[in-house]
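Structure request: STAS/SEC14 domain-containing protein, Marixanthomonas spongiae.
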Amino acid sequence: MVQKINTDFCELHLYTKYAILKVFENVFYDVEKATIVQRKFQDFFENKPFVLISDRNIKHEVDFKLYKSNTLQNIEGLAIVSANPEERERAVLEQPHFSKSFAFFEKLGDAQNWAEAFFR
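Returned structure:
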């Protein structure tokens, strides 16, 4: 890991080619919070492409409006990670709203391997 950032609603782990976003329990992750996170991504990645891994093993809600907001253009892939079957169902609903590579994993390590291999 290159950098770890904590906010009052999430934890970010930033690596060379990917970022892991872990939103805290019972947080509603909305456009306002996403804007804060996007600034952190912009500062770290600048304009370099990266993959976002959303660790959803902790229960929280995601506002679908995020997919319509002006997200960073350099996010090339999105991985959702959770062992919870309800999260898989929600990811299926989210996938059509994300126009780039989208994957679901039950284990964080599998998502990290996918992200590392993404730019080879």
